[in-house]
Amino acid sequence: MIRTLGLTHLALTVSDLERSFQFYHDVFGMLAVYREPHFIQAQTPGARDVLVLEVGTEHVGESGGIKHFGFRLADARDIDKAATVIERAGGKIKHCGEFCPGEPYVLFTDPDGYEVEVWYEIPTETGR
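User: That's the sequence. What structure does it adopt?
Assistant: Structure tokens below.
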């Protein structure tokens, strides 16, 4: 087994670099930690994740075999606020609901059509 800090980054091909960055900044507070003319590495404050946005023209919005990626809410009570922020930032809500009582989610698409999920998961004894 290889010891890691978990999944750390995801790279997306985007049609408009600044629009995509602004969307993830507005929704999740992501900050640009590294910029080049054709890509931005953004990070959620207080987390170790990195979202790489790379300008391109091929396969924009296509996920291949990946259905969606997600961000876990810190508080289940923030689900309605999350939906509002997503829509104001230009996202399109596809579906909302609960996986089970107390575990709400919002599935949406970003400006390029990538599917993203925001959800809350009740902590288990293992502390996940």
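The chain has two domains: 1-56, 66-128.
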